[in-house]
């Protein structure tokens, strides 16, 4: 991948020195995983930082023989950056929701890059603050009605990962169980709300292509209480 394409896909690097970015790409490893494959096991956290070139993944907490989805990440996002500074054991893994392409950079090399480029260090801090604010926002929603919480999840995915199309903002058709987990509501509630949003014409699920079109993002944003 060319440095220009990489910095465009990952806003984290849009102010990074070109020489630094070129070196970072030269030491990166490429990976491809099919849907359902574990991308990162719980005992591998802290070894590398992973950049999602294409596809969608879920971060899952292991609870006995089951798992609870904590987050959904799409193209242009990354994960593993916190674990390189935290050596405590983790009980989470990352699973591909569809076919995914990743680039990984070994932990030590990524840390070296942070120290080499102050702009990257600053951008990383900005990303950490943004993610903290998103977590705080989810916490503030815990007592809101299920429809409001689900609308917030859909709007956030559209803002962070959506692709503009003639049919509206396109996101991946997240499995209902995962969508319910990250929204912190029940699967049955999620199913009913998604059906209602579809009947209103605010969203359209294309099961064949495994995508959701957020047709009326303005109404979804209003429902989410963001305006």
Task: Put the structure in a nutshell.
This protein is of the alpha+beta class and 227 residues long. Helix content is 41%, strand content 26%.
Description:
With 227 residues, the protein is of the alpha+beta class. It has two domains: 3-139, Jelly Rolls; 143-223, Arc Repressor Mutant, subunit A, CATH 1.10.10.10. The protein is 41% helix and 26% strand. The protein is built from eight helices and twelve strands. It has helices spanning 3-9, 18-26, 107-116, 118-140, 146-161, 176-183, 187-200, 217-223, and strands spanning 29-33, 38-40, 48-54, 57-63, 66-73, 78-79, 92-96, 100-106, 163-165, 168-172, 203-206, 211-214. The strands form three sheets. It has a four-stranded antiparallel beta sheet. Strands 2-7-4-5 form a four-stranded antiparallel beta sheet. It has a four-stranded antiparallel beta sheet with strand order 9-10-12-11. Strand 11 and strand 12 form a beta hairpin. Helix 6 crosses helix 7 (187-200). The chain is globular and about 50 Å long. The model has no long low-confidence stretch (mean pLDDT 90).
């Amino acid at each position: 991948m060319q440095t220009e394409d990489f910095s465009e896909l990952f806003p984290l690097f849009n102010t990074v020195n070109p020489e630094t970015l070129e070196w970072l790409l030269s030491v990166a490893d490429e990976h491809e995983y099919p849907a359902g494959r574990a991308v990162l096991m719980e005992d591998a956290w802290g070894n590398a930082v992973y950049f999602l070139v294409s596809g969608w993944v879920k971060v899952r907490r292991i609870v006995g023989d089951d798992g609870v989805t904590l987050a959904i990440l799409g193209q242009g996002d990354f994960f593993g950056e916190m674990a390189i500074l935290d050596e405590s054991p983790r009980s989470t893994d990352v699973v591909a929701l569809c076919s995914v392409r990743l680039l990984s950079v070994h932990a030590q090399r990524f840390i070296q890059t942070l120290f080499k480029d102050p702009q990257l260090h600053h951008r990383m801090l900005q990303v950490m603050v943004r993610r903290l604010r998103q977590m705080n926002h989810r916490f503030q929603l815990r007592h809101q009605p299920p429809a409001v919480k689900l609308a917030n999840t859909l709007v956030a995915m559209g803002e962070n990962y959506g692709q503009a199309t003639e049919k509206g903002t396109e996101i991946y058709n997240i499995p209902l169980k995962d969508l319910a987990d990250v929204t912190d509501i029940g699967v049955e509630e999620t199913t009913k709300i998604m059906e209602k949003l579809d009947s209103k014409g605010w969203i359209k699920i294309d099961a064949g292509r495994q995508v959701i079109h957020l047709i009326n993002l303005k109404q979804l944003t209003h429902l989410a209480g963001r305006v």
